[in-house]
Amino acid sequence: MTLQSLQTAGRQLIRTNAFVSLLGNGLSALLGLATLALLARLCPRDELGKWLLFLTIYALTDTLRSGLILNALIRNLAAEQDPQQIRRWSGAAWQLSVGLLAGLSGLLLVGAAIGHWLGYGQDWPLLAGWITLLGLVSLPVNLSGWLLQARARFKAMQVVRISVQVLFLIGIGLGYWLHRLDSTYLFAAYTLAHVLIGGLVIVNDWAQLGAGRSGTAHERQALLGFGRYSMGTLLVSNLLRSSDRLLIGSLIGPEAVVVYTLPQRLIELIEMPIRSIVITDMPLLAKQHGQRPVAAWAAYFNQQAGRLWLLVLPLAVGGILAAGPLVQLLGGGNYDDSAAILRCFMLYALFLPLERYSGIGLDIVDKPNQNLLKVSCMLVVNLLGDLLAILLFKSVLGVAVASVATFLAGLLLGFRLLQAHAPVSVKKAIVAGVKQVRDLSKKMQHAGIH
Question: Which GO terms describe its cellular component (predicted)?
Answer without folding.
Answer: plasma membrane
